Amino acid sequence: MLTQQRRQLILERLEQDGQIVAKTLATHLNLSEDTIRRDLRELAKEGLLQRVHGGALPASTATADIHARQNIAADSKQALARAASKMIQNGQIVLLDGGTTTLHLAKCLPKTLQATVVTHSPTIAVELANHPHVEVVLIGGKLDKHSLVTVGTAALEALSHIRADLYFMGVTGVHPEAGLSTGNLEEAYMKRALSNHAAETLVMASEEKLGVASAYMIMPITEISGLIVNALDNGADAAATSVYTSLGVTVTQVEASQN
Amino acid sequence: MLTQQRRQLILERLEQDGQIVAKTLATHLNLSEDTIRRDLRELAKEGLLQRVHGGALPASTATADIHARQNIAADSKQALARAASKMIQNGQIVLLDGGTTTLHLAKCLPKTLQATVVTHSPTIAVELANHPHVEVVLIGGKLDKHSLVTVGTAALEALSHIRADLYFMGVTGVHPEAGLSTGNLEEAYMKRALSNHAAETLVMASEEKLGVASAYMIMPITEISGLIVNALDNGADAAATSVYTSLGVTVTQVEASQN
DNA sequence: ATTATGCGTGCAATTTCGTGCAAAGTCAAG
DNA sequence: CTTGACTTTGCACGAAATTGCACGCATAAT
Questions:
Q1: Do the chains contact at B126 and A122, CB–CB below 8 Å?
Q2: Most buried by CB count within 10 Å: which residue of A146, A225, B10, B82?
Q3: What is the DSSP letter of A222?
């Protein structure tokens, strides 16, 4: 049995049983526990499972995961969110992506805002129920458990009836040549479709997303109209952003504010 | 069972029951109380629960409060939920209504269940993201801010493509002559439509809903196939339910369980 | 006050973990 | 075909984690 094959099997069994016990699996496959442990360590490093004493468990599931992710770079994301919220005007129809950055945006929208927000994230929809003058439209579809947004043809179909003014997109990678990217194919399709149904697409990218590329490309940078990013600590701002401005994208730099 | 898995189980059980009794759990899991106590100590150190003499309670006073508040009617609703969850079989397609009663149902579905759950409640959709083998389909539409479910023509349209085996309906009134009712017109339409797209409709009604009628009628009692209610304290059970059984509805009475 | 139950610590037995290391296997260039 | 770099695997050994038990103390109940 090939190593990669074995790792695949581990993931399948993990999905099926909800757990892996190193010793059991070693006996079952006629391998030393060391080998299994090595596999588990590797897979854990790639984030495909969660290593625990005695074996492994599925990679932290959605909600626990999103709570953990929420705290990553929360300050810089909140700064982005505040800047983005100022770009929305009364009466507009806004598409709001799923993800932690846009969740911050939803939370910091002024309570007085009168607008229609269309989203495919149930989390964001629930959050916006607190805003009395915002009409919330939820795009249905198959729920992606990792990113907690709806995807699939049903979602695309529901979207087809909608034409919005703004779309705030979250991504996991922004790269001058590789374009905008994310880690999930279905999501990539969805984001592309959302962008096609809005007059303007604005990408919100916190510091760690800049200059990196994820597995699935959404679209080239040239197709968006604005990029909202954090101001860098060092003085390299101008150099870092000129790449994007030269592609015709308006770059909004946000100073991290003190909390 | 892996240690981490056990800790996870403790947290889940804490959320479901609102309390943990060390001794009971130790017996139940065939472990020494020492081990359980150690777990509780660890989890308390992480702030995930509050250690008390004899066991543990939910962590923050806020959530404890929510649980206390929910527990007023929660015991009976949870009993309903447990009974309802047993009616779902692997491979089925289930429509789940919004509301607290059905949220309880979502929470107590076994993690091993393999089924498709269709819902128009974003809250329930997010909750079910934790169930690895449940495919979650969210019905989109305009979000009703009060009841936190989607309604409107978009929701009806999305629903039109779906045909389910079971529909678990929540209502605010069950009355022999006035039928099933709820407090919101859009919701009434939606529930009626959901019922039309399932082979069987089962209504979950906690004690205080029986014999009362709300503003908007959903449908007559005769159109549903089952009614899940709490067993009454007094001996009036037979009399109270005979009205419904004579209308051709299977009544499932649930004993409130002891915590 | 007294009794019973639960708590925490220390301890020992067992299991699991990680690392270093060597043997066996793989692959490609020469 | 051979050589050499690299990967994979199993083993050894010390470190760390887990668990059950015993003992003395704290807390709750009667």
A1: yes
A2: B10
A3: G
Give the burial class of B39: count Cβ atoms within 10 A of its Cβ; 0-12 exposed, 13-18 middle, 19 or more buried: buried
Cα Dmax for chain A: 66
Q: Is the CB of A41 under 7 A from strand D?
A: no
The amino acid occupying position B243 is V
Angle between helices B22-29 and B33-45 (to 10 degrees): 120
Instruction: Mark yes or no for CB contact B140/A143 under 8 Å.
Output: no
Could you report the per-residue pLDDT of B66-91, keeping only the tens digit for each?
444 445 566 788 889 999 999 999 99
Chain A residues within 8 A (CB-CB) of chain B?
A: 15, 18-19, 21, 50, 52-55, 57-58, 61-63, 120, 122-123, 125-126, 128-129, 132, 135-143, 145, 148, 150, 154-155, 158, 161
Candidates B2, B150, B158; nearest CB to A57: B2
Q: Which of B158, B117, B128, B126 is nearest to B141 (CA)?
A: B158
Question: How far is A250 from A85, CA to CA, in rounded Å?
Answer: 16
CB B21 within 8 A of CB B54: yes
CA angle at B51 for the pair B47 and B57, rounded to the nearest 5°: 85
Give A104-162 pLDDT, tens digit per residue: 999 999 989 999 999 999 999 999 998 999 999 999 999 998 889 999 999 999 999 99
Closest to A166 in 3D by CA, of A89, A229, A221: A89
Nearest residue in chain A measured CA to CA from B147? A129
Note whether B204 and B198 are within 8 A (CB): no
Long-range Cβ contact pairs of A11-14 (< 8 A, separation 24 or more): A11/A43, A11/A48, A11/A49, A14/A49, A14/A56, A14/A57, A14/A58
**Which residue lies nearest D18, CA-to-C1' measured?**
B3
The residue whose two tokens read 């040239």 is A222
C1' nearest to CA of A54: which nucleotide?
A: C16
Q: How many residues does the structure list for chain A?
A: 259
